[in-house]
Design a protein that fits this description.
four-stranded antiparallel sheet; 38% helix; 5 helices; five-stranded mixed barrel; 2 domains; alpha+beta; elongated; 13 strands; 300 residues
Length: 300
């Protein structure tokens, strides 16, 4: 039995050390890659940015008819993220356990002076500067965090709340996938657009027959289908012309490839420094795990 217990303990220790090695290496390489993407991607202006992976600097603006309130403090904002933890356990094993978390998904509006871009924050690593942490006895706090000399009274509370926010007027660094529509930016794939119109018309086949079935036999022959295709081509060209006349609309979202999607109130240089420090921490964890693994294996 003692031999089995020691063997189990050794296996657990090896698993922990190997996990630390792999996890530290993954984290270090990930942060180094992100820092490289940030520093290698040139800053663009919204008005003249090329389609694809870009970075912007600008200011967050409020959108008309959009009112967002943070769920824990009740403060107005443009984006929020919260976490509620409960202090639970027995004796010396008490620890904080996350019981609820959430994040807003409303789009953000970035203005860099040359244009405006709507940003879908879903899937982004959001790093806001506004962050509040406080404690209480209720699962859901009533009102904002306490400040000043009363804050120390919360040290014995059983719940801990964390809320982060983005506010209008704050600077924002954004790097992600950029797409524009309208403003004459999009070319016309006539074959694809024509096919889309025909598929739409087929959804109302009775209406299609009424328009193009000249001999009223309930079918469309080759000549009638030729008229359908010609009419669909003209309709596709007209729709594209109308769409191109609309004002340009710019959007940013999560890249399809393994590229970072980051929204931060800190600038590129500060973010890169933080990521390099994170990479160094990951490398140290990897080294410690490797040394621990070698020491454990050497003791076999």
């Amino acid at each position: 039995m003692p031999f089995d217990e020691s063997l189990i303990g050794l296996a657990v220790s090896l698993a922990v050390s190997l996990a630390a090695t792999a996890g530290g290496a993954w984290w270090s390489l990930r942060r180094l890659s992100q820092a490289r993407h940030l520093l290698d991607t040139p800053t663009s202006k919204i008005r003249s940015a090329a389609q694809g992976y870009v970075e912007f600097y600008g200011v967050l603006r409020e959108q008309a008819d959009t009112a967002i309130v943070a769920p824990l403090t009740g403060k107005p904002c443009l984006w929020w993220r919260f976490r509620i933890e409960e202090y639970c356990g027995d004796g010396d094993k008490r620890t904080w356990r996350v019981v609820e978390r959430g994040c807003s998904e409303g789009w953000l509006l970035l203005d860099d002076g040359t244009g405006q871009c709507l940003i879908d924050p879903r899937g982004a690593e959001v790093r806001p500067s506004s962050r509040e942490v406080w404690r209480g006895n209720l699962r859901h706090p009533r009102g904002p965090a306490k400040g000043g000399w009363t804050a120390w009274l919360d040290s014995g509370k059983s719940y801990r709340y964390t809320e982060e926010r983005l506010h209008g007027g704050q600077p924002l660094y954004a790097i992600g996938e950029f797409r524009s529509s309208g403003g004459g930016r999009q070319g016309l794939d006539l074959s694809e657009a024509q096919g889309a119109v025909i598929r739409e018309w087929k959804g109302d086949f009775a209406g299609l027959l009424q328009r193009f079935d000249s001999d009223r036999n309930g079918q469309l022959d080759e000549q009638e289908w030729h008229r359908v295709r010609l009419a669909a081509q003209l309709e596709a060209e007209d729709r594209h012309r109308q769409h191109s006349q609309r004002p340009a609309q710019h959007h940013m979202g999560k890249p399809g490839e393994a590229q970072p999607f980051i929204l931060s109130t800190a600038g590129e240089d500060e973010l890169a420094r933080q990521f390099y420090w994170h990479a160094a921490g990951g490398a140290l964890l990897c080294l410690a795990g490797a040394l621990a693994t070698a020491w454990l294996l050497n003791g076999l």
